[in-house]
Design a protein that fits this description.
The protein is about 25% helix and about 30% strand. It has about 350 residues and is α/β, with parallel strands linked by helices. Helix 3 (about 150-165) runs antiparallel to helix 4 and helix 6 runs parallel beside helix 7. It is globular and about 50 Å long.
Amino acid sequence: MIGWKIERLNFRWHSSRLEMAAILLAVLVGTQNISLAQSSTAPAAQPAKQATPTPAKTTPGNTASSPAKQPTSDAQQNGAYTITTVVNEVNLIFTVTDKHGHFIRNLNERDFSLLDNHMAPAEVYSFTQQTNLPLRVGLMIDTSSSIRSRFQFEQNAAIEFLLAVLRPQVDKAFVMGFDVTPDVTQGYTNNGDLLAAGIRKLSPGGGTALYDATYTACRDQMLPLARAGALRKTIILLSDGEDDQSHATLDDAVKMCQRASTAIYTISTNDSPSRDRGDDILKAMAVATGGRAFNPFRMENVAEAFQSIQEELRSQYSLVYKPADFKADGAFRPIYLVAYDRNYKVSAEKGYFAPGASN
């Protein structure tokens, strides 16, 4: 997960505009690592009313834009003002496994090599093992006709997962089913009964618009959390990976999840004896966003996949650093993170979109 640190600088209007400007200049000069571009205080993209997304017309969520004009607050009327700035600070969340898939813990900063936009970071602020980050989980379940025979088992496994992984007052999840259109049957909550009821509301039938659903989930549910602080944002996707109805493309869906700093964990529901194109699509989505793809050989292994995801979400590292030659231009900045020990595999996002002017 990529996180941007937000700082708010408060000051009061003095009798002279010149005096105010001098104070503002002193504050900006005295605050380190502050982007020269003022960040947006407007919320990210709001949930769309239409059934399918239109990716080409959607404003990228991680790019700064001029905030909408707000009503004059009491603080402003009394002479108090707030400046919101983006500190050029990247919070990269990742996991490490050995060649057998076992999680490796207790590693140090010196065990890794990192490049951000093909350059070493200008400065590393912290390196910690984060096992208690608040979780924001999106459970997406394919409800198309192709998964009818195993649907009830998947529902039961999903309910058990959410009840086990969510901590009261800390973690939250939402439930979305999708066939031709996405359907959020339960919004963000940590109430297990409500989440279970949301899963039970789902019923199979119809075609599959996987890319549209993933795009919509990241845009409407995850992207608005961009300024909520350090979170582990994750989508758990149960699907066979087939798509025959989407307007969005695979690339559209992946980029929106990258903008929302959301890792996708996929559990294939393909019950054929061999891998097919859908499994490859699910793997591509997971790898590009820093998640993992699971291909259970039997339906009984779906529960095991959920357990592996639960363990991974609690076995992660946090690397906070300042990118070199950073520009708030809205461009995609690739990340290359590897362990010096080649027996270890690092799972992290492949990059992020810098804040900048709206496209």
